[in-house]
Write a structure and sequence with these properties.
By secondary structure, the chain is α/β, with parallel strands linked by helices. The protein has 13 helices and 15 strands. Helix 2 runs antiparallel to helix 9 and helix 10 packs parallel to helix 12. It is globular.
Length: 481
């Protein structure tokens, strides 16, 4: 079960649970930004707190027979076993730890090994479509580039290099396009193969919802002896992944979107088994050989962690750094229990049907007077092929309509994600969204577009915005939201 918000909690921005009403349900199509809370999450958190309160330090080692949670010491290993099927990996290739940004740094510390000849990083950096020519190019970079750019630039500087020399941005060759073709990505890899040390790309592009051809791009990078990493923040729990079979070198992801594990939830990473080997060199009197990394004691063999001699755990677990918070695993484990009631194949199958239905309704001519004039007020940026997208459709509104449309949607209890200046991201999550949600959304959305075009909706939102930001500066937050 997933807990749903109710309409008054949206329109009034009132987070008081007592306002929830099944008579006025919210249409929540924002799982690509923050997934909803599973009904069992509170029980799992309560069970952990009870175990800590009653068992104390013994909770690290003793099985919790009175709950579904593992002993504190083994929580990371158990969670990795449950996540592995979602990413197409063996349990030893997955580690649940840290946050996406931290894991990205840890992976780059190991896989970005620049030399004098090969020192560049190839990453996605396309800009908004050129119909927003009034916005300077620097400010039109996708927010994805901002998130990754901080990590990439600091890694480049850490090696004494200059970002302007060492970053290669893959952008659409035609600036009127919003997506990047696989052929163009492959051509860029081939063009810059001689001096590229790492390729780093998103599995599903956060802004357009485009699902990149991970196996083809990975194979191309490897054919030129270039390691490749994938940011799967918008892919895990959304599309089927086979990271081991695709021979992906490494991948990182967060757990608060399609994995429904809560704001800032503990993240995960994948390291292919070929990079996680730990070998003892018989000719060097016991010297242990393993891939270079930023090491921490929690990545050491459990049998020798306290002997002050670091020998990493074979596999992804050997890239762990510090002791993770056992409480942080509880929401993720609760969500994984739901995934294990089905399969990613079934989840993806329903997702394709939901998103196809959303696309069909958005493109259908409407006979209703209040919505029939919506044609021409928006267009879909996301690829039309279901093989090239996940759950999300990104809708580009006619310039100047976004604020008024969002006001109207929120007043009708609809939660979607906005990306200024003119984009709405809509993501029917197959675990909890229905075809009725999609039908109702499109009906409300079309009416909102027409009203906004005619100036019938206030173009600003009342009050100080979201209650969590009341009395505080929200500068920068709306861009992230």
């Amino acid at each position: 079960m997933i807990i749903f918000a109710a309409q008054p909690r949206v329109s009034n921005r009132n987070l008081d649970r007592s306002h929830a009403s099944e008579d006025e349900p919210c249409i929540y199509l924002c799982g690509n930004s923050l997934g909803l809370q599973p009904g069992r999450t509170a029980d799992r958190i309560a069970a952990h707190l009870e175990a800590w309160a009653t068992k104390g330090v013994f909770g690290h080692f003793k099985d919790h027979k009175d709950s579904k949670l593992p002993a504190f010491l083994h929580t990371d290993d158990v969670t990795a076993q449950h996540v592995a099927p979602l990413v197409g990996a063996s349990a030893s290739e997955v580690a649940i730890m840290e946050t996406l940004s931290v894991n990205l740094h840890l992976m780059m510390a190991s896989f970005y090994r620049p030399t004098e000849a090969k020192y560049k990083i190839l990453l996605e950096g396309k800009a908004f479509p050129s119909d927003h020519v009034s916005v300077p190019l620097r400010e039109r970079r996708f927010l994805y580039l901002i998130f990754v750019k901080y990590a990439v630039e600091s890694q480049i500087r850490h090696h004494g290099l200059k970002p302007e020399d060492a970053m290669i941005l893959i952008e659409p060759p035609d600036q009127t396009e919003t997506t990047i073709s696989t052929s163009h990505i492959l051509s860029m890899i081939k063009k810059h193969a001689s001096d590229t040390a790492l390729v780093l790309l998103p599995g599903v592009q956060y802004y357009t919802g485009q699902y990149f051809d991970i196996p083809a791009i990975t194979a191309c990078a490897h054919s030129h002896d270039i390691p490749i990493g994938w940011d799967l923040a918008h892919a895990v729990g959304n599309v089927e992944l086979y990271l081991h079979d695709w021979e992906v070198d490494f991948a990182v992801w967060c757990s608060y979107k399609y994995l429904n594990s809560g704001p800032g939830a503990i993240a995960g990473l994948f390291v292919h088994e070929k990079h996680g080997q730990v070998n003892e060199d018989a000719t060097s009197s016991g010297t242990v050989e393993y891939r270079p990394r930023l090491s921490g004691w929690w990545g050491g063999d459990k049998a020798t962690r306290f002997q002050m001699e670091f020998v990493p755990i074979p596999g992804a677990a050997g890239f762990q750094v510090g002791n993770p918070c056992a409480l942080a695993f509880c929401p993720l484990l609760a969500s994984l229990e739901i995934f294990e009631l089905t399969s990613m194949s079934a989840v993806r199958g329903k997702s394709i049907m939901l998103t196809n239905y959303l696309e069909e309704l958005l493109g259908r001519s409407d006979s209703e007077d209040s919505a029939k004039d919506a044609a021409g007020l928006y267009r879909i940026l996301t690829p039309a092929s279901s093989a090239e997208r996940g759950a999300q459709l990104s809708i580009l509104l006619r310039a100047g309509l976004l604020e008024a449309v969002m006001v109207d949607l929120e007043e009708h209890g609809v939660v979607v994600d906005e990306r200024k200046p003119d984009v709405v991201r809509v993501a029917p999550a197959p675990l909890y969204n229905t075809f009725s949600d999609v039908w109702e959304f499109v009906k409300i959305f079309k009416r909102a577009c027409v009203k906004a075009e005619k100036g019938l909706t206030p173009s600003t939102r009342d009050g100080e915005g979201y209650s969590a930001m009341a009395g505080q500066s929200d500068k920068g937050w709306l861009q992230i939201k």
